[in-house]
Design a protein that fits this description.
- There is one protein chain.
- The protein is mainly α.
- Helix 2 runs antiparallel to helix 3.
- It is flat and about 60 Å long.
Length: 139
Amino acid sequence: MRRSVVVTVLLVALGLFIAAGVYAWWPGWGHGMGHGMGHGTGTNIENIKKFQKETLPLRDELITKQLELQNEYGKPTLDINRITTLRKEIIDLQAKIQAVAEKYGIGGPMGGHRGSQMGGHMGGGMMGPGMCGCPMCGW
């Protein structure tokens, strides 16, 4: 009896995992394939180039801060003040990058990429929530 319950729970979990993957991948749903930059939006390539050029120093600094934060978390003794400072600096840099994206009409509302022409870059990645390490925008 107990074994059948475990098998049932595992099958339900597997089904939900597959359904979530299909939802994220399927064009028109989620932020999977087909939801990158400019999908069906008539994106102005010149605006993308201007955005990239204007934000390059900000994106470089953002990546550096993200790596510094990773290093802080990897230390045996955490320096909470340094971590707090780095997190604030990262948020400030992300806000600056987002402001430039919105200036060129490529950023989404509410400071995130979700639903914007840039695709869905928010969420957990290898570097943590909201830090996918996208080379385009630093998110």
